[in-house]
Write a structure and sequence with these properties.
about 5% strand, mainly alpha, two-stranded antiparallel ribbon, elongated, single chain, two-stranded antiparallel sheet, 4 strands
């Protein structure tokens, strides 16, 4: 073994040993201000690592430990392969070819042609290559500016509550709170904090885990004490940390998927015990899902359905909520199978949305209205009911064409009709409430906005489903087909309008 290789191997082992011994403890709950929202340092670390690397933990290390290392040892991380380039044509334009298409910041910054293209990319045509360039630029900008994002110092009393300051570690005595004079921090607070921050930086660079742990343990209460009235409560910070580390929606879709399989076996075998086990799993998935939505609402301090990700999660929750109620009453099994399948698909789909769709963000001004709670909730109830009706209709068609159970098909048709009625009432209420909100926000009840138009199209399709059944036209497989057609309109209203069109509702979803 060459001496150079042995040196690199020992350095890597030392870094891994340091990361495993580093214990941020309460320091991970230190509040940091980013984009108008106060969040735990742990959340910031997870979000930035996911943006840069695609994963919220680097090689199994504690996210806060990784973030601190990146901030205090930037030169060491310049050669770490962190940036994955997925778009093939962009990979072809990068000078160096690598297996896996994962590059270091040093390699990317050294590619002058790529850097020139990133710099001149502004508001030209939008296509896959341009989107890949924007994504790569965002990753590099985040990596190169991590230190500036650590705005962990609250302003002194009397200063604007959102003027938090960063601790830019440099030579001793050069740090100051940008904007707020040092003397406004009482009792030598700045000097003591500056000293602790320097000790933390030195300990991270020296790979001295005990010293780093001591510095973090002293910094956490010090940061929280400077202006307690402008600092998030410990319970809120701890709840967000639990939400980010526990990932309740991931456990929910796993439980839904398991419940779907167990319920399927229970129905096919005619076993009440197997069915009961599946129903318990479905309830466990629903409870986990509900707790996750509640935690997100508490963390955001608002209704948890303000953007595309949140409304997808909430609509999926309503789908399974209706299914739990129907299964508790009718014990059909088919409703549970449909809901669990759609619930798992919905949550997995939500987790695959772009990174910036999934972060908890403050409301834009137009959404800061109590109408958000009621209009959007009514629409979510409607979409949840229509999602469940779609799942049952697919099962209905499969049973009809496979000649499995004509009597069972009739039961599914009746259940679909009941669920569509619930959804139709909800969407009617939602459209009315939306019109009232539109008059309050924009000065008109109706404006032919794409979202409004497609909500109305969806309303007409489901109105036709209900009236068609009443006159005897929409029955049997035609009823299932009509439900599926209606859900196609729901999907376009929910996703297609947001990604393919522009309008007044774009602030809540894709831009």
């Amino acid at each position: 073994m060459s001496p150079l290789f042995a040196l690199l191997l020992s350095a890597s082992a030392l870094a891994d040993d340091f990361a495993s011994k580093l214990d941020p403890a309460d320091f991970r709950l230190a509040a940091v201000l980013e984009q108008g929202r106060k969040k735990p340092l742990d959340t910031l670390a997870r979000e930035k690592l996911e943006l840069i690397t695609g994963n919220d933990a680097y090689q199994g290390q504690d996210p806060v430990a990784t973030l601190l290392s990146m901030v205090f040892e930037p030169s060491a991380w310049m050669e770490a392969e962190l940036f994955k380039v997925s778009y093939p044509r962009l990979v072809e334009s990068i000078g160096e070819r690598k297996d896996g298409h994962v590059y270091s910041a040093k390699e990317l910054l050294a590619d002058t042609a790529l850097m020139a293209e990133l710099e001149k990319r502004e508001s030209r045509q939008n296509g896959p290559r341009e989107a890949a360039l924007d994504e790569l630029r965002a990753k590099l900008a985040c990596f190169l500016n991590l230190g500036a994002m650590l705005r962990v110092v609250p302003p002194p009393a009397g200063y604007p509550k959102d003027d938090w300051y960063g601790m830019r570690e440099a030579a001793p005595g050069t740090w100051r709170a940008d904007g707020a004079p040092r003397e406004l921090y009482e009792g030598g607070w700045v000097e003591g904090t500056e000293e602790l921050w320097g000790e933390l930086a030195a300990a991270v660079r020296a790979k001295d885990a005990p010293a780093a742990n001591r510095a973090m343990a002293a910094l956490a209460p010090r940061l929280a004490s400077v202006n307690a009235g402008n600092y998030p409560s410990r319970s809120m910070l701890a709840t967000e940390h639990a939400f980010m580390s526990w990932r309740p929606f991931r456990w929910s879709w796993i439980l839904y998927a398991l419940a779907c399989g167990v319920l399927g076996f229970g129905v096919s075998l005619g076993s009440k015990r197997v069915y009961a086990a599946g129903f318990v799993m479905m309830c466990a998935g629903f409870a986990t899902h509900l707790v996750g939505v509640g935690m997100r609402a508490y963390v955001a301090q608002r209704a948890p359905w303000a953007d595309l990700y949140e409304t997808t999660v909430a609509a999926t929750l309503m789908c399974t909520a209706f299914a739990v109620c129907f299964e508790a009453i009718f014990r059909s099994g088919y409703v549970g199978i449909s809901a669990c399948f759609m619930g798992a698909v919905g949550l997995v789909g939500a987790s695959m949305l772009p990174f910036d769709f999934r972060t908890v963000d403050p409301l834009v001004p137009v959404l800061r209205s109590w109408w958000l709670k009621y209009h959007v909730l009514a629409m979510i109830c409607a979409y949840g009911a229509f999602t469940l009706a779609f799942g049952i209709s697919m099962l209905h068609l499969w049973m009809h064409f496979s000649r499995k159970d004509d009597q069972g098909s009739k039961k599914l048709e009746d259940l679909t009709y009941r669920i569509i009625q619930i959804g139709f009432f909800s969407i009617t209420l939602g459209v009315i409430l939306g019109a009232v909100w539109a008059d309050s926000a924009w000065g008109r009840y109706w404006g032919w906005d794409p979202k409004e138009i497609w909500a109305l199209v969806t309303w007409f399709i489901y109105a036709a489903c209900i009236h068609g059944r009443m006159i005897g036209w929409c029955r049997g497989p035609r009823a299932a087909a009509a439900s599926i057609l209606g859900y196609a309109a729901v999907l376009f209203t929910f996703f297609g309008v947001n990604f393919l069109m522009t309008g007044l509702h774009a602030y809540a979803n894709a831009s």
